[in-house]
Amino acid sequence: MHKKILLSTITCLSLLTNTYAAQLEEIKVTTATKTEKSIDGVSASIIVISKEDIEKTGASTLDTVLKKIPSINAQFGNFPHPSAKSKASISLRGVGANGTLILIDGKRLSAETESPYEMTRISASMIERIEIVKGSMSTLYGSDAIGGVINIITKKIDHNTTSIDMKYGANKNNEARNKNINFNTMGKNESIKYKVYGSINDTSPFTVSKSYSQQATDPTSGAANNAHALDNIAGKQAVTYRDESTVKTIGTRLEKDLSDDLKIGMDLNYFIENTEGQYMGNAKTTSGGLALIKNTPVNSKDKNRRIDASFDLDYIINDDLSIDTKVYRSYYKKRNETDPINFSGPTNKKFSANVTIDTLDSNLKYALNDSNFITSGIEYRKEKRESGAINPNPASSEFITKTIEYKSLFVQDEIEFSDTLNATIGARYDNISNAENKITFQAGIIKNLNDNTNLRVNYAQGYRSPDIAELYVVSPLFKDGKRFGSDVIFGPKTTAYDLKPEQSETFEVSLSNRFNSFTSELTLFNNKIKDKISLVSYGSGAAKYYTSENLSQVDIKGTELALGYDFSDNFDIGFNLTYLKTENESNSKELTYTPDISASLNSNYKITQNLATNLMLRYIGEQYTDTLNTTKADSYNLVDLGASYKINKHVQVYGGIDNIFDEQIDEDLGTNIGTYFYTGLKATF
């Protein structure tokens, strides 16, 4: 009944509404084709979130922005560490966290597998826009883009300006306090452009009290040790669902025009992150005899560092031919220490790591004639991961090194058949050191049915090679068991599994319309994934473990609806709806963390020239949290309200309330922090 009422309400509202980021003026995008192109001429599904849209949310970090975007969902629980309760990864169209590629200015970042931290590391104030391409993008970006690409495009150096943004927020109980300060200055001097930025994001913890009962086991066999003094000790512990953390970022970009045709640039970014939280985990003790104490409170600290350096070049060879090249390194240093709280025991440093990504990415663009624009490119990428988490000995924190190399070629043709019909076709070849070589294809057409209506049809192939965690991780605690990579043989896991790359085919058709102040878009899509990599469980009790295996065939069908209306220059309203139907065809079960329905209603109203308000209503439907479909998280509704006031042309104050009605969500989805209040001040000079 609840769902029927909601759908009836949605149907009524959809007669009036507008897309979250819709603008009636022409929007240029680059991620979908690696060329600057009107969004109306792109065959893939794409959402553009502008800096104005971001400012309306009052967001400090990227996670606050993305959680309000339709068809994007957070996935908890896959990260192989007790702190997974406070870390989420992003999934597009139900494909999964590992199938969503996150880029900053087109560049990959070194970090944890599944990128569970990244959403809170990226300051919203540095973002010019976010381009989200849904559906496989492997023909342009290779592995990891099987579900789509999120490209965070930072602010460009186009004029002299300096801005400072300060924000403070907390929930109604004064928990999860967030203090955020951002600084950005940019300018140009003759042929040199510069940008310098920095941010500090400081957050206090949010915890939930949980009961526990410890279990003492033999650390080798896993057998119960009921005689141990620490066995069967019960109590309560405040479990962290939002880490205590401090993230400091500083960076710069320099650009120089060597001539009218040749430009070079350099980026340097450095961040420091310190986090701490208390969780339920496992810990060893020698007091009273050697034992592994399961389901005991542990304290986990992270000291993480990352440095990103890049050099880029853009050269216009002639009127028809140009080349752009990026060379960059991203180095990430993670140091984790996990200690028992109830007793003395050795510090677990197993989940520390060094991660290095070295990349050469070069694209040649050629206007073959008036009807064909050819883009070809090469990419070389080397990913090196050093970590104790992939050491086959669970008791050892000594680093083991694994390296994967990717060598790729691609070609794309943007074809204009007529003023009303154009197409994009592309192909890519990938040579991968730890998997079979792959060839992927993509083809799409856009037909202008009339001045206001476009028909878009797209077909794309994709692939994703297994990551290092899926192959080699050794985690003594994961959910209610252990986690081992597919190649690992240890304890109850007695055989290795030949983990194959995922392969996908995406079909979609979309009809969009613009008529005066009304916009609409309806998209139908089907994503078929062969050999989808998924976590499966074996055994029970002390012998239970999770490992990565291939599902023979997964089918994801969906519908996306975006409608909208601008009532005036001061008032617009927007609505989005996503419906997903997922199935693991080998057992007819739905995929985890894929809500059947997600919807949002967004309204912007400028009360006066200086006072503006934003109202957002979100509905997230039911979703399974386990692969056997025995546990289902309830649906929930969230209501957010924000406002901003321009004191003068340089200074603006803003504030808002997220989750006004204090809606609680299932703990498997990360437990929100309740009603959250924030206020801030932004000055631009």
Key features of this structure:
685 residues, mainly beta, Maltoporin, Chain A, 6 helices, 37 strands, globular
Strand-helix topology:
Elements: H1 2-13, E1 28-29, E2 37-38, E3 45-50, H2 51-57, H3 62-66, E4 72-76, E5 88-92, E6 100-104, H4 118-121, E7 127-134, H5 138-141, E8 148-154, E9 161-171, E10 178-189, E11 192-203, E12 206-213, E13 215-217, E14 234-242, E15 244-257, E16 262-285, E17 291-318, E18 321-340, E19 353-367, E20 372-387, E21 400-418, E22 421-432, E23 438-448, E24 453-464, H6 468-472, E25 474-478, E26 481-484, E27 502-515, E28 518-538, E29 545-568, E30 571-584, E31 597-606, E32 611-620, E33 623-624, E34 632-633, E35 636-646, E36 651-658, E37 676-684
Parallel strand pairs: 6-8, 26-29
Antiparallel strand pairs: 1-2, 3-7, 4-5, 7-8, 9-10, 9-37, 10-11, 11-15, 12-14, 13-17, 15-16, 16-17, 17-18, 18-19, 19-20, 20-21, 21-22, 22-23, 23-24, 24-27, 25-26, 27-28, 28-29, 29-30, 30-31, 31-32, 32-35, 33-34, 35-36, 36-37
Protein name: TonB-dependent receptor
Subcellular location: Cell outer membrane
GO molecular function, one term: siderophore uptake transmembrane transporter activity
Mean pLDDT, nearest integer? 87
- Gross CATH architecture: Beta Barrel
Q: Got a strand count?
A: 37
**Weakly predicted, low-confidence segments:** 1-24
Biggest pleated-sheet summary: 22 strands, antiparallel, barrel
Q: Give the termini separation.
A: 53 Å
Protein structure class = mainly beta
Report the portion of residues in β strands: over 45%
Helix content: under 10%
Provide the gyration radius in Å: 25 Å
So what's the overall shape?
globular
Classified by CATH, the class is: Mainly Beta
CATH superfamily heading: TonB-dependent receptor, beta-barrel domain
CATH topology: Maltoporin, Chain A
Number of domains: 1
Q: Number of helical segments?
A: 6
InterPro entries: Beta-barrel_TonB, Beta-barrel_TonB_sf, Plug_dom, Plug_dom_sf, TonB-dep_rcpt-like
GO cellular component, one term: cell outer membrane
Organism: Poseidonibacter ostreae
Membrane topology: Multi-pass membrane protein
